[in-house]
Amino acid sequence: MHLHLRDDDMLKLVAPKTSNTFAGALIMPNLLPPITTKEALLAYKKRIQEACKNDEFEPHVTIFFQVDYSYEFLKEIKDEIIAVKLYPFGVTTNSETGVSSMDVEVLRPTLESMEKLGIPLCVHGETKGFMMDREKEFLPIYESLAINFPDLKIMMEHISSKESIDLLKKYDNLYATITVHHLMLTLDDVVGGMLNPHAFCKPIVKKPEDRKALLQLALSAHPKVMFGSDSAPHQKNTKECHHGAAGVFTSPIALQVLTQLFEEHGKLDNLNAFISLNAQRIYNLNPIKKEIRLIKKDFIVPEVYSYKSEQVVPLFAGQKLVWSIS
Amino acid sequence: MHLHLRDDDMLKLVAPKTSNTFAGALIMPNLLPPITTKEALLAYKKRIQEACKNDEFEPHVTIFFQVDYSYEFLKEIKDEIIAVKLYPFGVTTNSETGVSSMDVEVLRPTLESMEKLGIPLCVHGETKGFMMDREKEFLPIYESLAINFPDLKIMMEHISSKESIDLLKKYDNLYATITVHHLMLTLDDVVGGMLNPHAFCKPIVKKPEDRKALLQLALSAHPKVMFGSDSAPHQKNTKECHHGAAGVFTSPIALQVLTQLFEEHGKLDNLNAFISLNAQRIYNLNPIKKEIRLIKKDFIVPEVYSYKSEQVVPLFAGQKLVWSIS
Questions:
Q1: Where in the numbering of this chain does the Amidohydrolase-related domain appear (chains A, B) (predicted)?
Q2: pLDDT by residue for chain A (326 residues), tens digit each?
Q3: What value of ipTM does the predicted structure carry?
Q4: Which residue of B has its CA nearest to A314?
Q5: Which one of A240, A307, A326, B227 has the lowest number of neighbouring Cβ atoms within 10 Å?
Q6: Alpha-carbon distances, residue A139 vs A134, B128, B181 (angstroms)
């Protein structure tokens, strides 16, 4: 329930890497320029469908939060989108047109319209503080949104710290997604040994105790928690460079890794709820039927995925996973 | 008092970048293989002198700590070295032959010999724990060394966390070096915005409160604290890659940056003590006379320094400093 597909050749490269194993995904709107109109939305959805190369995948598209969306516009677009995604200004890739103030009164017009129309809000919840504290510092903002808009479903995207879990449980209208990488990695995997740009993301993966708390939440398939990969491809040479881009590409390995993780902890029974059922219930989805088969067979993660001049390095490149998709 | 000059073409590239502005430096022995014999030491010193291209620089060389150094060997080499450098196994670049146990009894024979002979010990003080905690976890080991070998001068190299400062002050035989990058950067500068491999080092730069405490200590020119750049060049393509090497290259900018920093805080009077006088007293050095002139003139840090196929990117590449060396 949190996927970046980008556009152009990158879209053509990465879209099939999700559509061949998933029945649907919530697609993020942070293109350049971001998706803020119905025309741009429908055109992007069409490009995604063409890039997917099969009909067994539903792209649940979103638009980029703006403080000046009118009720009429949101009403008109309601049936085309699954949610509106809010980025604070400058916190991650292509968020330069994000909101510059998280003041509730500034956000109120759009959020009240969404609340009335039943459109969920997805949030990249980080301040611009010290990187280890950004999500923690954002929690009062989540709390204020939860209190001020009690009928608005608020998705705390890609939660990364243990403090977020308490807040999630405190308010009925808060939900959360968790990525594969926040379940598997800590900051040690980024800067603890050799520097690994392909594990560098925002929010940054954090301490062992944060990972542990998130893992416990995911393994229990807590009903307010959904898998959201935040798979975020970047060109290899924009990651392995002087000013590396933030984002971890996990689409082609997410299912295998999650299966391995849930199996190791004896929680395979909860895997479907975490990956799919919780999201169906929270978003009122009725997904297309699709069957994939996971088999216990070694899968060596490719070093790179390529299409034309696009090259993307997945997480765990070159490493062995014990589950394959047949 | 902490410099990596490497070898071969890299040595030829970086040695003049220190020798043209400094009168001397303590040179680390972590080559491949490490410097552990008198022959290797003298040959390396000669290569350094040749690479420096001038006589106004004294390379204070060191050997790589081994648990089986005999008293006789240390006595024979005593006048050739300024210190012995101890690396725990696997904690940083070329430390694969480092000590595998930091147990005092394992280290005792060598350390007692050094204590008797008056040879200082330099230590890379990190465990293999979570990256933010490695130095903190190492403090009991420093404490044990300080207590067990009261006449051994122990240099806590490149201290990076505020907890180290308390311990430093607690034992008379503990001293410390601080780098430019630990005074200037926090983890935000490595992974807080775009990923910056050229600010990635071990120990990693830490939280704002750590930087603040170190800065206060350096600005006061605390008598037990010395500037040690830990300038550690790596080939550009071994930094900007999938498995990036740890080390920050600061030799050509260290004096300018420190001058700017001490000036900004109104502590220029303490600069000489921090950079030079404290080290002279602690190590009983009588350096050659050398004059350089810093002028208030913009200096744009080069994007890269090159020699033959070697390319090294300095910290603050492309950025403007307000002091230049005339």
A1: 103-284
A2: 999 999 999 999 999 999 999 999 999 999 999 999 999 999 999 999 999 987 789 999 999 999 999 999 999 999 999 999 999 999 898 899 999 999 999 999 999 999 999 999 999 999 999 999 999 999 999 999 999 999 999 999 999 999 999 999 999 999 999 999 999 999 999 999 999 999 999 999 999 999 999 999 999 999 999 999 999 999 999 999 999 999 999 999 999 999 999 999 999 999 999 999 999 999 999 999 999 999 999 999 999 999 999 999 999 999 999 999 98
A3: 0.96
A4: B242
A5: A326
A6: 9, 32, 31
3-state secondary structure of B153: coil
Whether residue B75 contacts residue B96, with contact meaning beta carbons closer than 8 Å, is answered with no
Looking at residue B82, the DSSP 8-state letter turns out to be S
A230 marked among binding-site residues:
yes
DSSP A252: T
Chain B interface mutation, best of A242, A248, A316, A319, highest count of B Cβ atoms under 10 Å: A242
* B8 is annotated as an active-site residue: no
| Domains, in order of start, for chain B | 8-293 (3.20.20.140)
Kindly state the DSSP code that residue B213 receives in the 8-state scheme.
Answer: H
CA distance B174 to B142: 8
**Closest C-alpha to B273, from B229, B227, B231, B230:** B227
**Of the partner residues B131, B239, B242, the one whose CB lies closest to the CB of residue A192:** B131
Helix (H) or strand (E) holding B166: helix B162-170
Q: For chain A, give the number of residues.
A: 326
CA atoms within 13 A on the CB side of A196: 22
A85 and B CB contact within 8 Å: no
Structure tokens at A267: 């929680």
User: For B215-284, what is the HEC assignment?
Assistant: HHHHHCCCCCEEECCCECCCCHHHHCCCCECCCECCCCCHHHHHHHHHHHCCCHHHHHHHHHHHHHHHHC
Q: Which residue in chain B is spatially nearest to A317 when comparing CA positions?
A: B242
What single letter denotes the amino acid at residue B195?
A: L
